[in-house]
Amino acid sequence: MSRHYDFAVIGAGVFGAWTAHFLLRNRSSVILLDAYGPGNSRASSGGETRVIRMGYGPDELYTRWAMRSLPQWRELAERTGRELFIQSGVLWVGQESDSYLKSLMSVLSRNGVRTERLSNNEVAARWPQLRLDDISQGILEPESGLLMARSGVQALVKDLIQNGIEFQQAAVIPPSGQGKLAAVQTAAGERISAGGFIFACGPWLPKVFPTLLRERIFPSRQEVFFIGPPAGTDDFRVPKMPVWLHRTHPGLPYALPDVEGRGFKIAFYRHGGAFDPDDGSRVVPASSLDELRVYLKKHIPALGDAAVIETRVCQYENTWNGDFLIDQHPELENVWIAGGGSGHGFKHGPALGEYLTGRMLKGTPGEMRFSLAAKQSSQQRAIY
User: Fold this and answer.
1) By the 8 A CB rule, do 129 and 296 touch?
2) Which numeric CATH code is attached to 4-374?
C-alpha cells in the first residue's frame, strides 16, 4: 500500500530542499524526490562553491532575500557541524560612473549592510595579485563570501531525512491533465500520492512542462575553470583573496578563492547556447582556454602560465530577465513550480523556500515578478 503525503517535492536541489525544510517546520509530511540525487554534477546545485553577496544593484528585493538567507545557511552549518559558509568578502570592481554600483551602494546602505569603498590604488595595495588598470573603484562587502554548494545541499537533505522527511532517488514522469493532480508516477512504475506537488527541477523544468515552459525557462551552457596557484603560496586562498566581480570587463568575469585545494575558480558571466542537462557535452573547448589565458596574463599575472587543473561545464536555467519563477501551474491547481534560479539563485534557497511555503500554506500574497504571467519568451537578462 502506497503512502499519502501532504506534499511531494520533485527536485532535491537548493530550491526543493529548502522548500521541504519549511514544509517540515510547518508539520507537513513530505517526500523529496530527485532523479540523480542531491547536489549531483548535472544539477544547478552541484559543484563546490557559490557566491553569496548582498549587492544586486538597484534590486532591493534580492538584497533582502540574501540578507534573510545567510543566517539560515549559518544555522544549517551549526546544526549539521559542517563548514558551509566561508566569509571571504565579496569585492566589486568597476568605474565610479557605473550606475549599477551606485545603486548597489545606496541599497546596501539603506539596509544596513556594511561596505567599504576603495580607490583603485587601495584595491591594488590590498590585493597585489590583481592587475585591474581599467577600474577606478572597488566596493567590498566584508561580511559576504561563498557557500559550499554540493555539500550544503547534501547536508540539508541528510538533516531533513533525520527529521522525518522521506527521500527517494527516482525519475518522475511529467504530469498531464487539468484540475487537481492526485499522484505522480516514477519511471520505475511507483505511484506517489500527495495533497500538493512542488516541481523544483531546475534545467529539467522545460522537459517536465514542455508546452508551458519551453519558451519560459532557458537552460544554457556555462564554463568554469579552476587554476592551480604556484607552489608554496596562499595568495589565492582566504583571507588573502576575496570573491571578486570585474564589472568593467566585457566578459563580466567573476572569481572565487581556492577552497579545499580545488584551485582558484574563475568564469565569464555569459550564456552559451541551449543545453541539455541530461546529455549535453560537459567538455570545455580549447578556444575557451585561449580566451581565459589572455585574461589571466593581463589581470592576474601570477596565474598567466599556471596549470588549468580542472574545467567544468554546468548550466544556467534562467527566465527571460533572470527573475525567479515561483507560481502555481495554470491548469493543475495543486501543483507549484519553482525555478529559473541559476546564475544567482543558490544563495536564496532559504528565502525562496520560506516564501513558497508561505504562499502554499498561508496564502501569502505573491510577488508579481515571480509569476508565470510575467515571463516573456525573449531573453533580455537584467538580474545578475
Assistant:
1) no
2) 3.30.9.10
